[in-house]
Amino acid sequence: MNKFIDHTYLAPDCTSATVDRICAEAVASGFYAVCIPPFFVGQAARALSGTGVKLATVVAFPYGYAETAIKVQEIRRAMEEGADELDIVINIAAVKSQDWAYVTQDLTAVATTARLKGKVSKIIIEMSELTAVEKDRIIAICNDIKPTFVKTSTGTKGGATVEDVRYLRANLHPDIKIKASGGIRNKQSAQALIEAGADRIGTSSGLSII
């Protein structure tokens, strides 16, 4: 189970001491990655150097409505400071505006920026906020662009559900992985999501889960 977990702390009260703790816990527990705010990427990269634990951070978190150029710059800066994986929030405002051309070019730009540097992109689509039509359109766009992962949620609006993960696995291209995140607090929940098709679990309760 530990190798499925992105050990996460994204609350606004995150401090330098919190990041040191999260990194130390991830190393001790053999978690796959840590996921921390962009402000702490350099610190976390130093703490994780040589440990084998990957470093993830978020981009345009939590609402995704930064302009594409800003997202791209945020990704580049995070990669320069040592991030291996970028959890990038889709532009929910563009989705709700039905501006599918913008959504497509936005996701293409951010996924390509990560891919060109050999980094992992995870597109956060906030499943709980989407209509059935919006889900279908976003999945179609992702199947064309092929980010590394599609991620269920930021965890700020709603948690991952087994139904969400099953839907994603049934409709996403087989090469696109799934990260479930939000409200995953025990081993039973994590196991159910993995069985439904999740390849990664984003949680702040990693120690409890294992």
UniProtKB/TrEMBL annotation:
GO terms for molecular function: deoxyribose-phosphate aldolase activity. It catalyses: 2-deoxy-D-ribose 5-phosphate = D-glyceraldehyde 3-phosphate + acetaldehyde. Its EC number is 4.1.2.4. SMART domains: DeoC. Pathway: Carbohydrate degradation; 2-deoxy-D-ribose 1-phosphate degradation; D-glyceraldehyde 3-phosphate and acetaldehyde from 2-deoxy-alpha-D-ribose 1-phosphate: step 2/2. GO terms for cellular component: cytoplasm. It is found in: Cytoplasm. It comes from the Bacteria. InterPro entries: Aldolase_TIM, DeoC, DeoC/FbaB/LacD_aldolase, DeoC_typeI. Catalyzes a reversible aldol reaction between acetaldehyde and D-glyceraldehyde 3-phosphate to generate 2-deoxy-D-ribose 5-phosphate. This is Deoxyribose-phosphate aldolase. It comes from Neolewinella aurantiaca. The gene is deoC.
